Amino acid sequence: MGKINVDFSKLHIEEKEILKYSDSILNIHNFLHGKSSLEKEFLGWVELPSNYDKLEFDRIKDIALKIRNNSEILVVIGIGGSYLGARAVIEALIGSFENGDVSNTQVVYAGNNLSSRYLIDLINYIGDKDFSVNVISKSGTTTEPAIAFRIFKEMLEKKYGVNEAKKRIFVTTDKEKGALKLLANQEGYETFVIPNNIGGRYSVLTAVGLLPIAVAGLNIDKLMEGARTAQERFANPNLLSNECYKYAVVRNILYKEDKNIEILACYEPRLYYFAEWWKQLFGESEGKDLKGIFPASVCLTTDLHSMGQYIQEGRRNLIETVLNIVGGNMDIEVKEDKDNLDGLNYLVGKSLDYINKKAMEGTIEAHVDGGVPNILINIAELDEEAIGELVYFFELACAVSGSILGVNPFNQPGVEKYKRNMFKLLEKPGY
Amino acid sequence: MGKINVDFSKLHIEEKEILKYSDSILNIHNFLHGKSSLEKEFLGWVELPSNYDKLEFDRIKDIALKIRNNSEILVVIGIGGSYLGARAVIEALIGSFENGDVSNTQVVYAGNNLSSRYLIDLINYIGDKDFSVNVISKSGTTTEPAIAFRIFKEMLEKKYGVNEAKKRIFVTTDKEKGALKLLANQEGYETFVIPNNIGGRYSVLTAVGLLPIAVAGLNIDKLMEGARTAQERFANPNLLSNECYKYAVVRNILYKEDKNIEILACYEPRLYYFAEWWKQLFGESEGKDLKGIFPASVCLTTDLHSMGQYIQEGRRNLIETVLNIVGGNMDIEVKEDKDNLDGLNYLVGKSLDYINKKAMEGTIEAHVDGGVPNILINIAELDEEAIGELVYFFELACAVSGSILGVNPFNQPGVEKYKRNMFKLLEKPGY
Questions:
Q1: Gap between the Cα atoms of B292 and B282, Å rounded
Q2: From the list B147, B268, B287, which residue is nearest A309 (CB)?
Q3: HSE, side-chain direction, 13 A CA sphere, residue A198
Q4: In this structure, are residues A320 and A374 in contact, taking their beta carbons and an 8 Å threshold?
Q5: Among candidates B245, B289, B250, which has minimal Cα distance to B407?
Q6: 3-state secondary structure string, B311-333?
Q7: Helix runs in B167-219, H state only
Q8: Is A97 on the interface with B (CB under 8 A)?
Q9: A136, A83 in Cβ contact below 8 A?
Q10: Residues B268 and A115: beta-carbon distance below 8 Å
Q11: How many other C-beta atoms are found inside a 10 Å radius of the C-beta of residue B154?
Q12: Does B121 touch chain A (CB under 8 A)?
């Protein structure tokens, strides 16, 4: 049961060191799973996989089907947690290069930067294609997505007329209040809810992530099922047999030993945005009060030829957490070449996945020998269930790890500072 | 003269601190610019912009035109320095979303990982399109590109026949020796040279980078012109008036103050691969002997909603170097909305570039206030000349900075370790 497991065997941490955190873990566990947890602010994600709005879930599937039928492109407008989770899941399961085949509705992303070049490139790319928009924002006033939404709303109205455009705008926002909710009520847009008790970076399994993921053609039932598996598996308060809690503890032990950078390493380019999601989750949750492990990521073997030298022989302040996809659902074999000038014939008949695996094993050995503690997360296969499980695993691990560190893993006070300065420079009324 | 300049005004480093490095800088300067520098191993890049093989340069332009005429896609096969420089320049100047318009030949990348999913996605993406291959490898035996080359060579032969395929394979490799050179001689492939005295991460202005960049439709004369401007501007041995040397010194001063992570921040998504190139350059040059600043990157304002919290309030071991594109060649204005529910009307008539700039200024102020030293690199506009200048600026700064740090900035001994382990696990003869 469960499609992921964590291998701590490459670490040199004694069990008794881990057990020192037992009391702390029990307290955090009780806090997270306390009877009133659903009442607590920011803890809505804890029981979400087994306790979500089934009616809205079914509506998401219906609407996704409708969008898939009338749109070649869905423009997801959102920043931070409002797009990273969806993008992480979609790219992991569908791949790069135009989200796979052309019969699929492609999800593209806007409103996560202020680059005119990006926006113009995107508009040119959409061209004459049929498209819909999913705008995702709690308040509806965040600068980046609000600007993008004005632009794409106008594009839709020009292309389809005002009334038809309204049927191509889908809003994910607060249940009751805020600019976007008000506009949606006024215009009659279909809306979905960002729950009050779930913060942006923990929101991928709400409508925030689920609608775009379903539009991309993925099975959100399986995604929730995987998350539910994780919810059950990692609700065990026993530290030694709960790999999620153990991961949280181990990274705190390493942090105390001055390992202050954690690199999430994958051997599959499709996991690039999953790593970006992970960076937000941990960076925003733990990077405060002048503390926190700095989250970074590499895509291997690619980056063994760029960051590899540093990981092998640079400052020894690194932790490496490896995402290992155990099963492959695609493969290519190395074929014979009679001249064998490149010396590859020793690999004839071997599959690329096999070679990739050996590269991973050789790299883990080299990095561990070089003084970089490695944690290995095995993922049975790259599918909705496994990704759902992994998402919940990291969400829980992050909440626990941040709590051990002594920070509030659910706020992000530092994010407001640049905004205030920016508003002042832009002469926004009131700043 | 020159399209880039560096603003150190956000730092709190006294001039006398910088001047302590004057002697050291003079020694390094003399080493780099010594009369016999072209004879020295690894220093071929120093005078490259003013001293390159003009005949080969013209041949690159001719061949690029030929490829542009008969290929919708060029597959660049290479790993590390053999693709990152080209990709950095192409994506900076042409953009994401299929390299801009469809009339252009699109450059795609293979042989930089061992993922079968990636390769199959890429092959599906190429589909029926006409394509050519540029395989880039000094030895011709590096596992990743060698495997990819076997596959794409076979694809070309199946599609075009053996003889026509030969005219669609372009080899960039050692001048005289190695498996790829041997194969090219045997098969009659057009070849280009990776100079002996230029390492992979310093090779973007050789045929390694120039052929793909020219195929993408960019002006490589202007690129070299920009690099030449930098070569002249930053050949000044006076530390205080040489911004390149000053950047190298300043990062070493900060490193001694325990700033051990440098984040390259851009406000333009097109610079994503430029940051990846920069990470290889600095990470591989300095990350050794248990030393070195860990290079990371963020794309803003996107990542203000993920890594922003950490940068603002996490551990204070960060340096932030900002790439600021001063002039915009595209723009979009915010338009009026009568209801103004999103509260954006205060921005009506303002351009997106202007808002992006104010976001940058507000962010720099916030991060500096938060204890992150910021270095600002202003780039007049995003064009070939500016990118050429910036490439040379960073190459020189990296060589100088690594020398100050006391490491050899031109080797990468750690990269071999995973390979040895991998070969052993793959039972390669001799391992």
A1: 9
A2: B287
A3: 26
A4: yes
A5: B289
A6: HHHCCCCEEEEEEEECCCCCCCE
A7: 179-187, 207-215
A8: yes
A9: yes
A10: yes
A11: 13
A12: yes
Cis, bond preceding B301 (omega within 30 deg of 0):
yes
Q: Locate tokens 């503390």: which residue?
A: A291
In sequence order, what are the beta bridge partners of B321? B264, B375
B190-193 vs B169-173, strand pairing mode: parallel
Please, are residues A171 and A190 in contact by the beta-carbon 8 Å criterion?
Answer: yes
Instruction: Tell me the DSSP string of B43-77.
Output: -TTTSGGGS--HHHHHHHHHHHHHHHHH-SEEEEE
CA distance B97 to B107: 12
pTM over 0.90: yes
Please name the residue that has the structure tokens 């399961």.
A93
| Cα A89 from chain centroid (whole Å) | 7
Cis peptide, bond prior to residue A301, ω within 30 of zero: yes
Q: Is the dihedral of CA A37, A42, A44, A47 positive or negative?
A: negative
Contacts of B296 in chain A (CB under 8 A): 294, 296
Q: String of b and e for A1-28 (b: at least 16 CB within 10 Å)?
A: ebbbebeeebbeeeeeebeebeebbeeb
Can you list the positions of beta strands (E) in B8-124? 73-77, 106-110
User: How many Å apart are CA A140 and CA A178, to the nearest integer?
Assistant: 6
Q: DSSP per residue over B267-287, as a string?
A: S-GGGHHHHHHHHHHHHHHH-
With CB atoms and an 8 Å threshold, state whether B121 touches A300.
no
Q: What is the DSSP letter of A351?
A: B
> pLDDT truncated to tens, each residue of chain A (431 aa)?
799 999 999 998 999 999 999 999 999 999 999 866 556 789 999 999 999 999 999 999 999 999 999 999 999 999 999 999 999 999 999 976 654 455 689 999 999 999 999 999 899 999 999 999 999 999 999 999 999 999 999 999 999 999 999 999 999 999 999 999 999 999 999 999 999 999 999 999 999 999 999 999 999 999 999 999 999 999 999 999 999 999 999 999 999 999 999 999 999 999 999 999 999 999 999 999 999 999 999 999 999 999 999 999 999 999 999 999 998 767 899 999 999 999 999 999 999 999 999 999 999 999 999 999 999 999 999 999 999 999 999 999 999 999 999 999 999 999 999 999 999 999 999 99
Separation CA B428–CA A355 (nearest Å): 11
CA distance A420 to chain B (A): 8
B residues 374-413 closer than 8 Å to A (CB): 382, 412-413
B124 CB contacts (<8 Å, ≥6 apart)? A97, A100, A101
In whole angstroms, give the CA distance from residue A205 to residue A221. Answer: 11
Amino acid at A197: N
Residue in the structure block whose two tokens are 């001994």: B413
Asked if residues A132 and A169 have their Cβ atoms less than 8 Å apart, the reply is yes
**DSSP secondary-structure letter at B412?**
-
**Distance (Å) from the alpha carbon of A35 to chain B's nearest alpha carbon:** 31
